[in-house]
# Entry
Amino acid sequence: MKTLATKKNCTKISFDFHGVINKHPTFFKNLSTEFMCRGFEIYIVSGGPFNDIKEYLLIHEIPYSAIWCIFDYYEQKDKITVFADGSFHMDDKLWNEAKAVYCRKQNICLHIDDSTIYKKYFTTPYCLYDTETQTGYIGNYLINFSSPAEETATDILSVLSSLNSAAEVSHR
# Structure
């Protein structure tokens, strides 16, 4: 049985870029700012490429603590074949589990992403974000991403607190 890796004093949250930040940049600028004001680190964890994402975040003034990109990471490890036309190939399983592995190693307490494919690899709490409705689910908990950023941040932290409390009870 897969369990969520909840941590009582976790202060790291990650956002996907494609399908999340780039679909609602003003909201995620405000949410990122809100979490950082509350002492959280914000990680942008995405497919890449790094330079394109960094430039977009700069143009849209979206604050962050770190960017990690699957493509750039595995290209440096020679795990990607890049073809003359600019397309590339990488092992599907390695690509699909990469975000989960990174979030686990970095002790990230929540990852927000729009992909159902990646979700099955996560033990870190995962918020499945729906771009169309601007809502997301962390387990059975609904988060409204069209509310003001302050309210959304409070709701997310409340859910994480509930998950931590449930994890503590199950370990007794």
